[in-house]
Design a protein that fits this description.
Elements (H helix, E strand, L loop, with lengths): L6 H8 L31 E6 L6 H9 L4 E8 L3 H9 L6 E6 L3 H8 L4 E4 L15 H18 L4 E4 L4 H14 L8 E3 L2 H15 L10 E3 L6 E3 L12 H12 L1 H8 L8 H18 L5 E8 L7 E9 L2 E5 L7 H30 L10
Parallel strand pairs: 1-2, 1-4, 2-3, 4-5, 5-6
Antiparallel strand pairs: 7-8, 9-10, 10-11
């Protein structure tokens, strides 16, 4: 019989606002709240900094954060063109006050982060047709190092959410940098994998002919190729697809980023859907900071639930970042095999990120921050 699990069941109850009915072994009940449910009591005193705010992800992300009632200050940083974005957003009749900081110098980045509660990072080079995520490492690794350095001086206790690809390597880079700067707290560093969950819910809903808001499914592992592992056996409502349909859906979820890159014919990668997913995740972090109970989302973090030192699983969020790692959901044999296959690939990406960071720490030099 279908079972939604134990600690994992908390995630199924709480991660989506519109979850109505899940015909699992047990009824899923409790506080069903979502990133877009803003009708709870809130403290409007949080500062969020967006690094890379004038880019394809940064602009729509900043627009959504300008509408968030938990945000009182929205700080935007980019190498150029961010002043216009900030001015445009400042005309919107919502509470958050908008500031902009522009330039390649370290001081402007530090100034943008002063006293921030959350730093979200879409900065960096986007994927291009034919480009492997690992090819982004040499360019975008610098972003992770720069953000970690600035945070160590401006907001060492802030939560940081990296969108910058390759996420599987960027989070280890930032972690190593923060360790060297004596400001590392694994509970506060996140790789945003929410888009994989968003895509899984969307594709499953289309297949099952239901509202995506009624679908809940965990996606574990990393944020590239086979390291993205949707656990369809734990989908609610129950997914009753054939083995062939299951295989096709898993493959589409894993390669959805490439699907967008190809559709945009070399002009960009997933920006709007990524901004939506990132805004959802940032709001979950804010809810945790605000003391809301049972806030659960998947994210890529330092972890000991598998052999991989970084891994995405459902996390309960709180005032200090990660309150509790809910661990692995139940898996069928095919999913267990997928987990086994992904670990070497994930560890390779982590090792590459760690090596990059250690070399940069030992041989510090300023390089050009990648263009958007």
């Amino acid at each position: 019989m279908h079972n939604c699990g134990m600690g994992f069941g908390m995630w199924m109850r709480t991660s989506q606002s519109c979850l109505k009915i899940c015909k699992c072994k047990r009824a899923i009940q409790g506080k069903a709240t979502c990133g877009w449910n803003w009708n709870h009591n809130s403290v409007r005193n949080y500062k969020v900094t967006v690094v890379g705010a004038s880019g394809g992800i940064g602009q729509p992300l900043s627009l959504m954060l300008k509408q968030n009632p938990l945000v009182s200050e929205l700080s935007l940083h980019d190498l150029k063109l961010v002043k216009g974005v900030a001015m445009d957003l400042s005309h919107i009749c919502t509470n958050p006050q908008v500031e902009s900081f522009e330039g390649e110098d370290e001081a402007s980045l530090e100034d943008s982060m002063q006293n921030s509660h959350i730093v979200v990072v879409p900065a960096g080079m986007p994927r291009k047709p034919g480009m492997d995520r690992d090819q982004l490492l040499s360019a975008n690794g610098f972003v992770a190092m720069a953000v970690a350095t600035a945070m160590s001086k401006a907001c060492p206790k802030a939560l940081v959410a990296f969108i910058t690809n390759p996420v599987n390597s960027v989070v280890p880079i930032a972690s190593e940098a923060m360790k060297s700067l004596d400001c590392y707290d694994p509970k506060r560093i996140f790789g945003v994998t929410t888009l994989d969950v968003v895509r899984a819910r969307t594709f499953l809903a289309k297949h099952m002919k239901v509202d995506p808001a009624e679908v809940n499914v965990p996606v574990i592992g990393g944020h590239a190729g086979i390291t993205i592992l949707p656990i369809l056996s734990q989908c609610c409502p129950i997914f009753k697809g054939t083995p062939e349909e299951t295989k096709a859906l898993v493959h589409r979820i894993q390669e959805a980023g490439t699907e967008v890159v190809k559709a945009k014919a070399g002009t960009g990668s997933a920006t709007l859907s990524m901004a939506y997913a990132a805004a959802h995740f940032v709001h979950a972090l804010l809810r945790g900071l605000n003391g809301e109970e049972d806030v659960v989302e998947c994210a890529y973090v330092a972890s000991d639930v598998t052999e991989s030192p970084y891994f995405s699983t459902p996390l309960e969020l709180g005032p200090d970042g990660i309150k509790n790692n809910l661990g692995l959901p139940d898996m069928n044999s095919d999913e267990q095999e997928g987990l086994k296959k992904m670990i070497p690939e994930l560890k390779k990406s982590i090792d590459e990120g760690t090596k990059y960071a250690q070399e940069a720490i030992c041989n510090p030099k300023k390089g050009p921050e990648p263009k958007k």
